[in-house]
Each structure stands twice: as C-alpha cells, then as structure tokens.
Amino acid sequence: HLQLVESGGGLVQPGGSLRLSCEYSTSGLDFYHIGWFRQAPGREREGVSCISSGGYVSGYADSVKGRFIISRDNSENTVYLNMNNLKPEDTAVYYCAAADFLADRPYFVETYLEPNEYRYWGQGTQVTVSS
User: Fold this and answer.
1) 10 in the Ramachandran plot: left (φ > 0), alpha (ψ -120 to 50) or beta?
2) 46-77, pLDDT tens digit by residue?
3) pLDDT tens digits, 101-123
4) Torsion over CA: 23, 27, 28, 30 (sign)
5) Which 3-state string (H, E, C) describes the chain?
6) Alpha-carbon distance 123 to 97, whole Å?
7) How far from each other are the two terminal CA atoms of the chain, in whole angstroms?
8) Looking at the DSSP assignment, which residues form a beta bridge with residue 47?
9) For residues 47 and 61, what is the distance between their CA atoms, to the nearest angstrom?
10) Which of 98, 97, 95, 96 is nearest to 126 (CA)?
11) Would strands 68-73 and 78-83 be described as parallel, antiparallel, or unpaired?
12) What pLDDT does residue 14 have?
C-alpha cells in the first residue's frame, strides 16, 4: 500500500508563491506517475499538474500554465509543485496522487490529469490565497 503525504500549504497574498511537497513511501521496486489535484468548496476535484514516473513528461491545466512548475526527486521519493503568481481562484485543498506505471501504456498528459487514473491519494493540504 502506497502512502502519500502533502506539505507546504498555507496562507499567501495574491502574487505570492508556495511550494508544495508530496512524499510517498515505496519499496523502491515500483514506479508511479504522480499528479497534483485541487478541490475548492462546492467544486469538483480538478487536475492541476502531473509528471511521469521517470520525470521526463509533465503537464499542466490551462489555468496554471506559466505559473506552476512540477518536479520530482526519485532519490527522495518526493514530488514538488512550485506555485508562483498565486491568485485567489487558486484557493483550494491540494492533493497529490499516485498511479501505477504500466510498461505497455503510453503516458499522455490529458489522461493523467484525470482523477480517475489514480489509485492512491494523500490527505491534502490547504492553500489559501487572500489579502
């Protein structure tokens, strides 16, 4: 069973920055694609960014392109989401999630921005953008 723990959320003013971290536990023999999702009150969970197991492919929702950067350090089993120029509409609970790497399945960003592709989820971290 894979466990994921998010950290780094908080309160920030518009235009500010935050870095979220997602640390996952693994035996080291398995590989996982990682996605970041967010859910605001009264809204559905939406994909924010995703990165392939090896870190070679990544993608973003249109709403965060040019502002957010995803990266991963597989030696530390950690995925980061650097969020810049934050806006009030970025306020939400942010979740990281893991999907199994399947050797016979190509990695398409559009696919892995969908919550249904992910089997393991963290508990979430609150991000609030407000003056």
Assistant:
1) left
2) 999 999 999 999 999 999 999 999 999 988 99
3) 888 889 999 999 999 999 999 99
4) negative
5) CCCEEEECCEEECCCCCEEEEEEECCCCCCCEEEEEEEECCCCCCEEEEEECCCCCCEEECCCCCCCEEEEEECCCCEEEEEECCCCHHHCEEEEEEEEECCCCCCCCHHHHCCHHHCCEECCCEEEEECC
6) 10
7) 40
8) 37
9) 7
10) 95
11) antiparallel
12) 98
Could you tell me whether strands 4-7 and 10-12 are parallel, antiparallel, or unpaired per DSSP bridges? unpaired
C-alpha angle 62-13-87 in degrees, rounded to nearest 5: 15
Match 């995803």 to its residue by tokens.
70
Alpha-carbon gap, residue 89 to 8, rounded angstroms: 18
